[in-house]
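Researcher: Quick one. three chains, 773 residues in total.
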Amino acid sequence: MKELLQRLSDRFSLKEITYQRDNLIFITVEKSNVIPFITHLKQHENFSHLVMIGAVDYIENGTFQLTYLLHNYSLHADIGVRVHVQRENPVMESIHTIWAQARTYQREIREMFGIDFPGSPDVDKPFLLEGWQNIPPMRKDFDTLKYSQETYFPRSGRKHYDPQNYMKQKLYPDKEPE
Amino acid sequence: MEDFNRDKFPPIVNGKPIIDLDSQKFLKVWQGPQHPGVTGNMALEVTLSGDEVVDLKTHVGYLHRGFEKLMERRKYLQCFTIVCRICVPEPDTNEYVFAAAVEDLAGIKVPEKALWLRTLTLEMSRLASFLMWIGGQAGSLGMGTIAQWTVAQRDYILDLFEELTGGRVYHMYIVPGGVRGDVPEGFFEHVEDVMKGVEKVLADVEIALLNNAIFKKRAKGLGIISQDMVDEYGIVGPNARAAGFVRDIRKDTPYAAYDQLDFTVITGTKSDALERTYVRFQEMLQCVSLIRQIARRIPKKGALYTQIPNPLHWKIPAGETYIRAEASRGEYGYYMVSDGSEYPRRVQVRGPSYTHAIAVLEELAVGTNLADLAGLMVSLHTCPPEIER
Amino acid sequence: MKKEHKSLLNTDLPDFERDYFCDTYPQEVKPLKGFIEKFLNWARAQSLWILGFGTGCGAIELRPLMTARFDMFRYGMAPRPTPRQSCVFIIGGYASIKTLKRIVRSYEQIQAPKFVLALGSCTINGGMYFDSYNTINRIDHYIPVDVYVTGCMPRPEAIIAGLRKLQERIMQGKAEKANDYIKNFEWYKANQKKIIKDWNMPDFNW
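Model:
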């Protein structure tokens, strides 16, 4: 992993490197650098398996973080490529030409976070939700409890009794409760 | 399959097939969500020419519950009651992966005996999931009897779970720091009884299914996954192993007590429905052998869990991690981000069916027969609840 | 005295599809009198055909129920592939909005008399998913329910007990919830349309 990082930092400008475990590191790169970086990892460093594309909403910084998690089957090591996308008008380049399966992840992120991936097949079609008219649900400013209580018909909770008074009333119904 | 008659297929313009429904050459059929031939609650939009599939679109989202959002507003320990519900046939993998991710971020070490007990539940749930699957595989290709045997046998494994954890389908047994309780007295004798039953049923299944001419003829050449497709589509688990890749997370990056167990990775040569069935069938026998090894070698005494701080005010240090485990369908992983508070910032689930059921199925279905579509779908072993969470 | 009903509008359907569906308002079915109805109820209770639509994680316990160990066939219950042949609709747990649309459609296609068995806490009050943005909290606001089975998940024994309870109610002639649906048709439709935002199906699916 050490040599690999040395090789990578010679070619690309890596901003922040986090070592989580021996075989798992997270690297932050510039948005413009992501596609060349990922392509390099896939073609020259044998990171052939795209595990997933994750998205995290950092509402306080006004950014979304996208994490491309790549796996190397010969080293049994993972690299998470982190990139920050502006929260207003979020657009990211699509990687469906590098991995065909990426289009599914991009379609979900488009729906759940509202990050656009121009050119990715079917990216604008609804994926999990049908007829959704609110802000994308996985954003931090969407309150799911409030939405649920307003939209559906919540059933009020169970009636609670104070056990002492309840038993007194049951056993001695004539006596006035205090 | 090289001598395809291209006339039956729609003309391709700019890489996309043009399907002109008015030409009366094509027929659009919806299979699901209310359809006995689909695995779980998902829908396939099939375009047919005769009875041959020329285009397929998968529609999911019928089981979407928004788990990832719900976890953001629950404390770490509260999340445990909901993570196991993400994948219904195999809840223990979810529990393990979530617990391991929390332990990785918080730096908790798990005692030896708890690791063995975790391995035991993981293998038992893998076996239960496989037994459910082989019934579906046989049923979808016209042999309903096999499901009667294997699903009934799976029930005895659920009985074991009930004895061990108190829960039949959802167990919530693996908690951060260890496991919830010790094995009850005489548990491993019951395990041995059930394993004998499983072996007997599997011997019957081998005779009735794997040596059946109809099954072989229908499954052979159905949905071939080529070697190039595996990395392109992120195919994992038995589907990739049947194509000849020696990839098993239990062997590659051993977790729990797998490094102390004796097993070899099972591979095939050409990943079609028949080969995948063989691979999974042998993995079932492997599960039985692993469970027996665990029963023999599990430490008799030892701590069951590491003490964790008060779970109501438990703050996990900031950081992010990814933990994976081998489920019956392949690599199952959680990507967890913590910002140092009591609530997880983001938990993302990577289920193996995510690619298998959508990108891969859409690719493989083209050119198959409508009647074999259900068999193809089951042979990929997809599980809709984990696709959409 | 026949009550006048306005006809269904099916406004959201495109013109070419509107021809396919019936615009008449659904009608209540009055039970017959005396022992004929009793005989019919007995017959109905003894052959419950279940719609095989696994609408939630409750479907996982239907497989053991159908197969050798719990074997529901001994009570004359059998799974059927299509709503037109079945009479019991098992709601297997939480229903997301996308599924609810299909539930409504399938429920209306079932021929009366029809019965609904709802499994799991999530159909009663939302259960685990009470705060989820995509699952409903109470199923009885969208379709009428005859018997609830609590639990998460209900065990196969509990489902059998629920089905036996349903048989009892049918024998007593109490399980005519399909008429309730017609009586409160507008209330149900308003509730359904409140959450199903793209209503591109007929108002009543014959």
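The interface with chain B takes residues 18, 20-21, 23-24, 26, 48-52, 54-57, 67, 69, 73, 76, 78, 80, 99-101, 103-105, 126-130, 137-138, 140, 142, 144-145 of chain A (CB under 8 Å).
Researcher: Thanks, that's what I needed.
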